[in-house]
Amino acid sequence: MRFNEMATRSNVGFFNFDDLTWPEVADLPRDIPLVLPLGSSYDLDLLADQLSNPPRIGLLPSFPFGWRGSGLEVPDQVFAQYISNLLDSLRDDGFSRVYCLASQGFDPQSTFILQHSSAILRLPHASHYLPITQLPPDSERGKVILIPIGHTEQHGYHLPLSVDTIIIDAIARGTVAKVPTRSWAMPVMPYGVSTHRSSFAATMNAGGRAFEDFWVAVIDVLASRGFDRFYFMSGHGGNTSFLVNVVKYAGERHRRIFCATAWLHTSGKIGAAALEKYRTSPIGGMGHACELETAYLLHLRPDLCHMERVVDEMDFVSTPDYYMDWIEGGSLIANPPWDDDTKTGAYGAGSHATAEKGRLWLEAAIEEKAAHVEEIHEQHERREKRRNEGYGLWGKLQ
Q: Boundaries of CATH 3.40.50.10310 in the chain?
């Protein structure tokens, strides 16, 4: 559910929450209504009326699936915990009017409705009147199902909250365009995990355990429908360690699938070579709201970039085995407060970014992901051949 800021017939101004920078969110009145829609195509005038026509209403990115009637349903409690954690992120930032917008057809007996009735707004929307389209359609069996996951979080003074979602959605769409007979992309998920969310305003957090439970449930559903090849594609570093766990759980539960993920994007053999070729910042210049992410946004959504506000920050507390760069970071793993290393929310040298670098890096990222799609197909097909031939213990299990 996205639009440019506009007024309804009731003169209520709607704005996209994730178009803002974190200082702009920090400056919002704490009694402004913030609404997280399930799906899209709601009547904004009806929404304004239900909220008593306040001067402005902020709409968060739509949650794309997971509820009953969405085309891909996960268990109530799994869905409820994910959404609840997101709404709590806003409440933790001090916002007092936080809502989830659901269709009138949303099951009133669901766990989520029962637990959070005061935070639920229910209105008709277009999809309520249409037959449910399964995600993915059954016709896409045999392809690698791409599952792009971004996030809604701060990106310094100069970039919007939607950076990770915009980038990974563009990479997923580009991959499908490059290998359309080999892959199919799910709608991008704009919410992930930020364990550092208290440092700067506007950073959401699905919570690590809720995140893992949700995505394992998604694989459960898809595997039960006959899909057997999956690729979790993350645009946000905070998701990656949890996605490794999801992949491990999925592989244990469903022995005839191949489910994979990778560290972020633009970070494998093809991506790393492109970074080295075109970057102008030193090590430490690519971390967060950095040369790389800023270049992507200058290429994909220059209207959301505020380059006059960019601040380069590379004062990370670095030691030989713990430092920050897009691919490299040393062998130590830790999670100290972001406040230790950044005053503005950025890690890196955003001033080095150009739209042309963003275009070149996007091309490299798509090429890299298309190659991964082919590897996933090869892995699955070779393993299935062994299984069907009775390799090792598979021969005793048949």
A: 138-264+367-397
What are the tokens at 70?
């969405």
Taking CA atoms, 341 is separated from 182, 199, 239, 278, 315, in Å, by 42, 11, 20, 26, 6
Which stretches of the chain score pLDDT less than 50?
Answer: 4-7
**CATH number, domain 138-264+367-397, options 3.40.50.10310, 1.10.8.50, 3.20.20.80, 3.30.460.80:** 3.40.50.10310
> Considering the entire predicted model, what is its pTM?
0.95
| Of residues 323, 327, 324, 325, the one with CA closest to residue 368 | 327
pLDDT at 5: 46
pLDDT digits (tens, 9 = 90+) for 257-307: 999 999 999 999 999 999 999 999 999 999 999 999 999 999 999 999 999
For residue 387, the tally of other CB atoms under 10 A from its CB is 17
The pair of structure tokens assigned to 386 is 């062994």
Calpha distance 9→283 (Å, rounded): 52
The answer to whether 191 and 151 have CB atoms below 8 angstroms apart is: yes
